[in-house]
Amino acid sequence: MKTTKIIAYIMLLALILSGCNFFPTSDSKLTTAKLIIGDPTGSRAGSAVYQDSLITTFWVKAYDSDGVQIIDNVTENAAVLTRNASEDRWEGTMSITLPGGDIYLHAVGLNEAGEFVYQGTTSMISNFGAGPITIATALGYSVGDKGPGGGWIFYDKGSYSDDGKMDKSWRYLETAPTDLTKNWDDVNKIDDTLVKLVDGNVVDKNNESTIILSTYDWYWGSYATLSTLPQVKEGWNNTDILDGDGVDGLSGATPVKGIKGRGRPASGDELNSRRDTGLYVSKAIINSYSDWFIPSKTELYTILSNLVNGGTRSDWNLSETVYWSSSEDTDSVANGEDTPEDAYWAWAVDFGTTLTLDSETELVQRYEPYRVRPARAF
User: Fold this and answer.
1) Which end of the chain is more exposed for a tag (fewer CB within 10 A), N or C?
2) How many other C-beta atoms can be found within 10 angstroms of the C-beta atom of residue 243?
3) Cβ pair 306, 143 in contact under 8 A
4) Which residues in the chain are classed under CATH 2.60.40?
5) Distance of CA 236 to the CA centre of its chain
6) How many of the other CB atoms lie within 10 Å of CB of 1?
7) What Rg, from alpha-carbon coordinates, does the chain have?
8) How far are the Cα atoms of 121, 144, 168, 378 from residue 141, in angstroms, in the given order?
9) H helix or E strand, kind and range, residue 5
10) Residues whose CB is less than 8 angstroms from the CB of residue 24 and which lie 6 or more positions away in sequence, other chains included
């Protein structure tokens, strides 16, 4: 009898404690915290940043451990800070629905031209809402820093300018936090005599554990000479070309006739349709930004060489596999073979090999399904 009462008391106590907010990030609850912008030293005053009269805006975004933005409940995007003259600092509040795990904050200070002048990222926070949070900031970004889109900075042009390459003034290139992913569905018209759909993947019809096409697999694009270039700064324009190539997203184009492309009907077969990178990236909104593009050949290699540089690819949410660039073949030579035209080949980068440009970049047929890591300029 006593044992029964003790168990009942324990269960009652657990129910009471479950309604208390002792651990702010343990469940999905709307939680508010005060934010303070600090100097590079971490000073709570942040007076040096405050006294920079060129800064007109400071905002802060929250991200979960996967780099997915957690929107502010008030602005439905980033928390906007204000100047506190009496404290000589930028400060404000953020109200977010916590994801049930640790989060981090990213702060940026912009001038009147919209250029990112100051930036700072916290370490992972497990007790958001327990007290004021000071975010130390520094001038500008360095390669490897967290970016405002939740990814990582992999290229610094040195100064802001509109060079006609990104449709805006820009200085930095940033990766997306994760690879592009989308469920395969009936619109993609798989060959259901051989495969079927399970959890968004295309799997062997007789063995569901064998994935033929994962949610991360993408085709390059249509067969045509589109003049997408390989250099740094060309990814935005390349993606714009791929998106506007004049081929409807459901038209037959890849893979080529007679090649079924891992469960897809070949081009020319009835029910064939496209799943191409440019048609999707140009319309994708990732962490409140809609200006993502597919990196050019050299930009993609720069992600590998500047970020990974012999380290662990998982540190940047990258896989040891092949990634598509947005650059087509321009010399009619692919893998040592002369081709009738450039229209069937495009450049990819193998993220699973050693760091040399020649060994990692390769020309492959456009019907091959590979991963895509979007990028953006700001």
Assistant:
1) N
2) 19
3) yes
4) 30-140
5) 15
6) 5
7) 24
8) 11, 8, 18, 11
9) helix 2-18
10) 31, 98, 127, 128, 129, 130
Summarised one tens digit per residue, pLDDT across range 188-213 is 566 777 888 899 898 888 999 999 88
Residue 276, number of CB atoms within 10 A of its CB: 21
Those residues whose C-beta lies under 8 Å from the C-beta of residue 164, and which sit 6 or more positions away, are none
Check residue 126 and give its pLDDT.
Answer: 96
Q: Is 51 exposed, middle or buried (0-12, 13-18, 19+ CB in 10 A)?
A: exposed
Residues 231-277 have pLDDT tens digits of 999 999 999 888 865 333 323 333 333 344 555 544 444 444 456 67
Low-confidence ranges of the chain (pLDDT < 50): 12, 14-26, 42-45, 246-260, 265-273, 334, 357
Q: What is the DSSP string of 126-183?
A: S-TTSS-EEEE-EES--TTSB-TTSSBEEEEEEEEE--SSSSS-EEEEEE-SS-----
Task: Say if residues 138 and 118 touch (Cβ distance below 8 Å).
Answer: yes
Q: What is the pLDDT of residue 198?
A: 92
Q: Are 377 and 166 in contact (CB under 8 A)?
A: yes
Q: What are phi and psi of 324, to 5 degrees?
A: -75, 140
d(CA 147, CA 69): 12
Q: What is the pLDDT of residue 44?
A: 46
Cβ neighbours of residue 234 under 8 Å, at least 6 residues apart?
Answer: 165, 228, 296, 298, 299, 326, 327
- Residue 210's pLDDT is what? 92
- C-alpha 223/C-alpha 344 separation (Å) is 6
> Residue 68 class from Cβ within 10 Å (0-12 exposed, 13-18 middle, 19+ buried)?
middle
The tokens of 3 are what?
Answer: 């044992």
pLDDT of residue 18: 45
pLDDT the model gives residue 63: 98
- Taking domain 30-140, whether its CATH number is 2.60.40 is answered by yes
* Whole-angstrom distance, CA of residue 188 vs CA of residue 209: 21
CB 251, CB 219: distance < 8 Å: no
